[in-house]
Design brief:
The protein has 197 residues and is an alpha/beta fold. The protein has one domain: Hexapeptide repeat proteins (UDP N-Acetylglucosamine Acyltransferase, domain 1, 3 Solenoid), CATH 2.160.10. The protein is 21% helix and 27% strand. The strands form 4 sheets. The protein has a 7-stranded mixed β-sheet, with no helix packed on it. Strands 2-5-8-13-16 form a 5-stranded parallel β-sheet, with no helix packed on it. Strands 4-7-10-15-18 form a 5-stranded parallel β-sheet. Strand 19 (179-182) and strand 20 (187-191) form a beta hairpin. Helix 2 (27-49) runs antiparallel to helix 3. The longest helix has 23 residues, at 27-49. The N and C termini lie far apart (62 Å).
């Protein structure tokens, strides 16, 4: 394998968190990912047994879990530790949040079923991909964002406060606050209606 990091003494985790290329199948990162799989499974089992007692497991999995924030299991994350969910936000079934970079979800968001927030990126060149190089860019959702079922948000995207994204949309670029966006790629179709109308 090509030596990609000559003179760079950082660990793969340090490179990953900096948004730089790193080796994705690093043993330390694999242990952290396995922890996340275990906790997501424990959360599902705890929820099935007694939903009222499952929150501590979710709080252990998710980096920051605001008051009243809730995720319906099952959920799928890379690490969980790089996810922040604001108070009052609701996330429906089959949430996939690949948190190689930070994922920030604001307050009072509504996330539909089967939504995917995908921070990882991969080189286009064949050899670095074969050598398991990866990088990532963060995703940020403002307050009161609504993502309809099946929405996919790609690496590096920010979505402004109050914005609504229609079911099945693929968000490839930043979206401003207070708009409705639909389609693949998602495009703004109009401003949000005034609360008074």
């Amino acid at each position: 394998m090509t030596e990609y990091f000559v003179g760079d003494d950082r660990t793969n985790r340090e490179r990953m968190l900096a948004g730089d290329l790193y080796i994705a199948d690093d043993p330390d990162l694999e242990r952290a990912a396995n922890r996340a799989v275990r906790l997501a499974h424990e959360y599902l089992n705890a929820f099935v047994a007694d939903p009222s007692t499952s929150r501590p497991v979710l709080a252990e999995l998710i980096g920051e879990l605001g008051e009243g924030a809730f995720i319906k299991p099952p959920l799928f994350v890379d690490y969980g530790a790089h996810i922040s969910i604001g108070a009052g936000s609701f996330v429906n079934y089959n949430f996939t949040a690949l948190d190689v970079a930070q994922i920030t979800i604001g307050r009072d968001c509504q996330i539909g079923p089967n939504v995917q927030l995908l921070t990882p990126t991969h080189p286009l060149a064949a050899r670095p991909r074969r050598d398991k190089l990866e990088a990532a860019r963060p995703i940020t959702l403002g307050d009161n964002v609504w993502l309809g079922g099946g929405v996919i948000v790609l690496p590096g995207v920010s979505i402004g406060d109050n914005t609504v994204v229609g079911a099945g949309a693929v968000v490839t670029k930043n979206l401003p606050a207070n708009v409705i966006a639909v389609g693949n790629p998602a495009r703004v179709v109009r401003a949000l209606p005034d609360d008074e109308s």
